[in-house]
Amino acid sequence: MSETSTPRYMQTISDSANPFQSTVREHLPASLKTAVCSESVLPKSAKPIKVLAAMPAFNEEKYIAKIVIGARKYVDQVLVVDDGSVDATNEIAKCLGAIVVRHEKNFGYGASLQTIFETARILRVETLVILDSDGQHNPEDIKKLLEALDECKADVVIGSRFIGGNQKNIPGYRKVGMKVLDGATRVAGVADISDSQCGFRAYGRKAIDVIHLSGKGMSAGSEVLFQISDHNLKIAEVPINVLYDIGDTSTENPFKHGIFVLSYIIGLISYRRPLLAFGIPGCILIVCGFLAELWVFAELRTTGVFHDVLSMGSAFILIFGMLLVITGLILNYLVIFVNEQKKGL
Question: Nearest-CA neighbor of 284 among 317, 327, 326?
Answer without folding.
Answer: 317
